[in-house]
Write a structure and sequence with these properties.
heterotrimer, A mainly alpha (106), B mainly alpha (309), C mainly alpha (252), A: 106 residues, mainly alpha, 2 helices, elongated, C: 252 residues, 11 helices, 2 strands, 65% helix, MMgT (chain A), transmembrane helix (chain A), endoplasmic reticulum (chain A), inorganic cation transmembrane transporter activity (chain A)
Chain lengths: 106, 309, 252
């Protein structure tokens, strides 16, 4: 959130403005009866800037990137999940009393 | 059936660290209890005491519970299992009571109730409950597995092995069951059979170093030149997959090469061309120097005995 | 946009709104009718142990095929034999069995009936409403979208009007019907609950692919591909990789 979010909104607004400017430009062209070949330069600039801002926001806002390399240290597999489907209850939990005041209040 | 087969993945280092960090934070009142519980559920970590404590604190807080909305039922289930694991049958009973009021006639709650019988040690009752579940759905994998677990809990390993083999005949792609069978075979010292199970596990998930390691250990225990050479290779692949961080694999390589050189004494073959064992010994020394300097001399002496450094 | 078309408010009152309301009501009606017609008990017919086993065998054989290089040659050979050994191999499918499965697929009256019911509940109301819309409301503009669109949308929005001079943002009544037909899914999932939405697009997809899975065939295919693979043990190379890893570790 925070700054990335603001940048994203800004980029979106810029894109919207570019669209609006293009519509205006085409309306003018219709009146002067010229052919539409390409949008004006300032619109192009807005588009590029808006694209860059939106991309930056889209990459930075949702969350941090997670490493996917199998050989990076954080992705090394260190343990297996407990085999919960086969768990049995014969263990020291039986001998170690747990807090008596842990209770589910209904 | 889809609901019963949870996907099992091994735990990566970053996630395990995150789990421990969250546990620390939540235990000291730093919040994040729900994240911790979700992560523990996803990683299928068996940490009953903190799960019970934190889960109950969430469940006893009406506002926290209403924030969880429909997720609270999963939490009830998780806490119930954790409570049974801590031998708090009373708490588990309360949780299951809430759940069965919410979902009358649900198989999932039925399984929990049967599990409660197990936690109390009431094997006959539990068997009956699972039989009932299996009558309705003969392909309930969890119920099948629990029956195996009951046999195991009673110490009846041969029956457990029988059940497991029968189960794997049908559900042969279930690697949790293969793993359980492998572990039981190892505990019964039936290493040939265990090796087969570990091969199956390696086939199913070839990127998990722990299976390579376990397979290597079984082969090393079996002994014999060929097995030792294979074991050394699997220790090597464990080293490769763990980036040399697994101490067991490093020791394994050293032990294997020592045993091999003892067996091939006199007729020294091409075996010595590899530097792996000396590198492993070096890595071991370095590791001990960093983490436990007081034991370094001990390791150095041991390695010298094996003629590795 | 020199001249704007002015739409009569009567069009809104007598075409746009009634059409939408009728579409929603028909969707709801169809949901309840299909619920009535669904054969009650067979919600999840307990699968036959043979199919379960075949599915599992295929998974296991596939993992053998894809990661065969990770187990020793002896273990691989034993497994290959276990799967593909003539008549007794796990992947063996008796000939008459394969044909039987095919025949069962088509002759199972329950299944055919189910399919027909599903189709009936989908196609009949659709044709009826389409005919109704065509009869009463065809050939005029019913709404205008508040933003300009490119020419490509003409086919989508102006179905039934063959004029190329009308601006694309005008929607013909028939197109409004189609938009409703495909666009109301979200609303249905709100009204009828998540999974109950009558999802036409998905149903059509299912009709195409529903008949696909045939265990006998996938068993045979798996057997063939197991037969041709060569075993190439990757572990001897691992020693060299491990050496490199350790060297790198020691240098640090």
């Amino acid at each position: 959130m925070g700054i990335g979010y603001v940048v994203g909104v800004l980029g979106g607004a810029l894109l919207a403005h570019a669209a609006y400017a293009t519509i205006q430009y085409r309306a003018v062209l219709k009146i002067t009866e010229e052919e539409f070949s390409r949008p004006p330069v300032d619109v192009m600039m807005q588009l590029l800037l808006g694209l860059a801002l939106c991309m930056w926001a889209g990459v930075s806002v949702p969350a941090k990137f997670v490493s996917v390399l199998p050989h990076s240290e954080e992705n090394r597999i260190v343990s297996l999940p407990a085999n919960m489907d086969f768990m049995i209850f014969n263990h020291r939990g039986r001998a170690l009393p747990s807090d008596a005041d842990l209770k589910l209040k209904i | 059936m889809a609901a019963t087969t949870a996907i099992s993945t091994a735990t990566a280092a970053a996630e395990e660290a995150r789990l421990l960090r969250l546990e620390e934070q939540a235990e000291h009142g730093g919040g994040g209890a729900w994240e911790y519980l979700s992560l523990a559920r996803r990683l299928r970590a068996r940490r009953p005491a903190p799960v019970l404590r934190l889960g109950l604190s969430l469940l006893n807080d009406a506002s926290a519970r209403s924030r969880l909305a429909s997720e609270q039922w999963t939490l009830y289930e998780q806490v119930a299992v954790a409570a049974m694991d801590c031998q708090r049958v009373d708490v588990a009973k309360d949780c299951i009571g809430v759940l069965s009021k919410q979902f009358p006639g649900s198989t999932r709650v039925g399984r929990l109730e049967a599990l409660l019988f197990e936690a109390k040690g009431d094997w006959a009752e539990a068997e009956r409950a699972y039989a009932l579940i299996l009558e309705n759905n003969p392909f309930d994998q969890i119920a099948h597995k629990r029956k195996i677990a009951i046999a195991k809990a009673q110490g009846d390993m041969s029956v457990a092995v029988d059940y497991l083999n029968k189960y794997l005949e049908l559900f042969m792609a279930d690697h949790d069951a293969w793993r359980e069978l492998a572990e039981i075979y190892v505990s019964l010292q039936m290493y040939k059979q265990a090796a087969f199970c570990y091969e199956e596990l390696i086939l199913a998930q070839p990127t998990i170093p722990l299976y390579h390691l376990a397979y290597a250990e079984v082969l090393y225990t079996l002994g014999g030149l060929e097995n030792l050479q294979t074991a050394k290779k699997y220790y090597a692949s464990t080293i490769q997959l763990t980036g040399g961080k697994n101490t067991r694999a490093l020791f394994g390589v050293c032990l294997c090469s020592a045993a091999i050189s003892q067996l091939t004494k006199g007729r020294n073959k091409e075996e010595d061309s590899s530097e792996l064992q000396s590198l492993a010994a070096e890595a071991l020394l370095k590791d001990y120097k960093q983490r436990s300097p007081s034991k370094e001399a001990l390791i150095a002496g041991m390695l010298k005995n094996m003629k590795l450094s | 946009m020199a001249e704007e078309l002015v739409l009569d408010t009567a069009i809104r009152d007598w075409v746009l709104v009634p059409l939408s309301v009728v579409m929603v009501l028909i969707g709801v009606l169809r949901y309840f009718v299909s619920k009535l017609m669904r054969s009650p008990p067979s919600s999840s017919p307990s699968p036959d142990p043979k199919t379960v086993k075949e599915g599992q065998v295929v998974i296991r054989a596939r993992s053998l095929r894809t990661s065969s290089q990770f187990i020793p040659a002896k273990a691989f050979k034993a497994r290959k034999l276990y799967y593909t050994n003539g008549e007794s191999g796990l992947l063996h499918v008796p000939k008459e069995d394969a044909q039987k499965a095919q025949a069962a697929m088509f002759s199972d009256p329950n299944m055919a009936m189910d399919m027909m019911k599903k189709n009936l509940s989908m196609i009949v109301p659709q044709t009826l409403t389409f005919a109704w819309v065509n009869f009463f409301f065809s050939g005029f503009v019913a709404a205008k979208i508040p933003f300009p669109l490119t020419q490509r949308f003409r086919g989508m929005l102006q179905n039934g009007i063959d004029l190329s001079t009308v601006d694309v943002s005008y929607v013909s009544s028939r197109s409004w019907y189609f938009l409703n037909l495909f666009g109301l899914r979200g609303l249905f999932s709100l009204i009828l609950g998540e999974e109950n939405a009558t999802d036409d697009a998905q149903k059509m997809m299912q009709m195409g692919g529903g008949m696909g899975f045939n265990p006998a065939m996938s068993l045979g295919a798996e057997k063939d591909s197991l037969d041709i693979i060569q075993h190439d043990w990757a572990l001897p190379k691992m020693e060299h990789h491990a050496e490199e890893v350790l060297r790198k570790l020691l240098k640090k």
